[in-house]
Amino acid sequence: MTGFMTLEIRRALRDVRYLVLAVAMPIGLYLLFAGLFGSRGQTAQGLPQPTELMVAMVAYGAMWAVFSATGPRIAHERAIGWTRQLRVTPLSAPSALAGKLVTALAAALPAMALVALTAVISHHVQLSAAQWPAVLAAMWAGVLPLALLGLAIGYLAGDEVAFPLTMALYFALGALGGLWMPLSTMPHAMQDIAQFLPSNAVAELGWRITGGQAPVPRAVLVLAAWTLGSGLAALLAYRRRNTLAVR
Amino acid sequence: MASVGTDPSPAAQPEQERVQRACEARPAVRAAGLAKSYGSTVALAGLDLQVAAGEMVALLGPNGAGKSTAIGVLLGLLSPDAGQARVNGRPPSQAVASGLVGAMLQDAGLMPGVRVGELLAMVRGLYPRPLPFDDLVGMADLGSLLARRADRLSGGQAQRVRFAAAIAGDPLLLVLDEPTAAMDVQARRSFWRQIHGFAGRGRTVLFATHYLHEADDAADRVVVIAAGRKIADGPPAAIKTRFGDRQVRFTLVQGAPAQLAALDGVRAVEHDHARVTLHSVDIDATVRSLVNSGLAWSDLEVGGLDLETSFLRLLGEQP
User: Fold this and answer.
1) pTM confidence score
2) Is B230 touching A (CB cutoff 8 A)?
3) What tens digit of pLDDT does each residue of A10-27 get?
4) Who's near A232: CB < 8 A, 6+ residues apart?
5) CA distance A153 to chain B (A)
6) Chain B nearest C-alpha distance from A92 (Å)
7) Which ipTM did the prediction report?
8) Which domains are assigned to chain B?
9) Which residues in chain B have Cβ-Cβ distances shorter than 8 Å to A245?
């Protein structure tokens, strides 16, 4: 089981799609946006611009990290028959599923840390010794529902659909969740939608903590609801595949 | 665990004894009355199957006979609608979970994005008593492939890696579903040599195939299934006589048709005006005696092994 998990993690971390979309792109976007708007001082939320952007890009990178390690990967493994081959080894089906979830969460950590490191080096973002672990831990826990959503997609969607689908979700959740531009610049209707998106809730946790405030209950509730819903969907999708057992 | 190669060494003795004891205790595979349908399609219709420990058994049948479904049930991937399967005395899924079974499934892929060596090390780690890594690499002839990406191999190379993954846990029972489907003759030959190398260590092998000659070459015993049932079970030679129908066709120019049935190896004679089809159980003998018969004939054709026809004939003979 540990051998399986470490190989899964190693493989997730050297996946080109992961490196480009979960690591390079958030860092690139951070440098771009912080370069453009970094000197504008305080944001509407009362945070220094580079700090607010850092949180948004940490959320963005973490989101693709958990998606890339689940949805497209699992759908592909089902399509090529690796999932079936693994089922005729002593690795239990629940262990395989747990391995996927742990891998997804493990892949999120380097993506998050590297964006933060970029922000510190390029724009001298400063947080207290307590804020750093708090913000990273809260946001890390916050991507759990997205990892579960990725699992559900992986067990439901076909190989050709899974990648574009997670990709579309990644962009939509990023844009609508206020990770690309502040919510305050968006129309009211879109702001209302954003309130219920896990992407916004993850960033909200980060913005609150970096601003020295306690997380709002709304963000926590939204994430809890998504965890429940995605977790259920993942479990049902997985059970369906395992009882049909053909793929 | 003792290190075991293809040649029994003194160090291998305790391992051989352990296998021997496990073999004598219970049959490797015992299935009774297996039934499975997908909607209105019947895949298994009361299949019985026994494999003794240490045996090499071929499951022979045409496409759609139920071979893959039977194997799915024996590996715990499918649950039968009726009947019971036991592998080493346990329900199949338990036998798989205990690491007693290794399998090469049809169209089963390899983990993408890792090297062959990494993959095999991981698979070994899933089993309680894996083969020593170097023995595994030697048995599957993978020395030159260990650093290659598992998802960038040729068909034959991938098949060797899949074979290695199947035996990595040193299973008592190895199950192979049409293992040579995508191989050329050369690859096929060396593949069966590797299988025999593994089986020679007292292991049980059950393989599905739709090639009669492959069953004939490799197996100790052949179980023929069609339409989800067992229709024959016996040593390869007996099965070959019953199913190995080949045909000689020619136009009879001159001679008594009555002579035809008396030619060597002829099982049946069909006439379509002057065009004659001889069904033969020994094609070489039939052609030889035809040449020496003094009959005048033209347009000779020798037809290949027609397993489908044989199956249909046998199914027709079933009560």
Assistant:
1) 0.82
2) no
3) 999 998 989 998 899 999
4) none
5) 19
6) 7
7) 0.87
8) 10-241 (3.40.50.300), 244-317 (3.30.70.980)
9) 72, 77-78
